[in-house]
Amino acid sequence: MDGPETGVLVALASFPDAATAERITHALVEEKLAACGNILPGCTSIYRWHGKVEKTTETIVIYKTAVFEREKFQARLLELHPYEVAECVFLNVIDGSPAYLNWVRNETLPR
Hints:
It contains three helices and four strands; from the N terminus they run E-H-E-E-H-E-H. It is α+β, with helices and mostly antiparallel strands.
């Protein structure tokens, strides 16, 4: 597929630690809501929370999922996530390796 209609999304989420990220990522992949998740521990996050600038170490996960699973993916991630306000943002994949894009779509096909 060419252009913005690949049907694939990259989703980004942050977690308090690698163990939490791994547990939730395993569930999302097992449930076919994501084809995979790349877990990147040791990220320093600086953000404003309740009017105060905070600094903490977090784990970032980069997910690959299909457009047709976006709402289910987000709902499940937020259900499992321990944060009061969890990060879950999506980026459209406008192009990529056809074999990889097919793999993502096939791994997230509804059962």
